User: What shape does this take?
Amino acid sequence: MPIGAYSYSDGLETLVNTSTLDNQQSLGLWLEQELRYGSIRLEAAVMLRAYQAARLGNLDALAYWNAWLSAAKETEELRQQSWQMGRALIRLLLDLCPEVRSLADAAGTPCNYAIAFGIAAAHWQIADDASILGYLHAWASNLINAGVKLIPLGQTSGQQLLVNLHSHIFLASREILALEDDELCTCGWGLAHASMAHETQYTRLFRS
Assistant: This one.
């Protein structure tokens, strides 16, 4: 979807710049660890809660989880990324489906990408498990594309990485579906450090 995701690397630009990631294997391991412990799990879990709130018409819950996710972002770049992509997705969704206006207004401004994704998936009646798989797959595809450009890798290597991640994406989606509210946590300090360093990196191709 035209929401500007291609302009963000989620800290990969810093990790490549410092040679932390320099080949297909190291990028694959990074993505696997993020799926197992990182903030993408938190985002997907909150997306699911926005999805459920939208299905039930629970406007207060939408506002709560949007504010909660904004507060959970460790760096300004990551927060701005989520807000910009959320704003773009909400704008697209309102153009296509004006009837979701009340849900979009309830979520608030700025709206995080995960919240906007949950509203869209609920409106289009996409099953919750398929919505999480789609969210994680889109995240992985975008970061692999960034890695292909930055490391650089060949396009075939990028496709191999995505195929190899399928089982990890499926397992993460099953675990995320089972998370209770008080289990929402992340161990993404590597991403946070990379994002903070990216803010002052001398040369940058990506916005995060």
About this structure: The chain has one domain: 8-198. Residues 128-150 form the longest helix (23 residues).
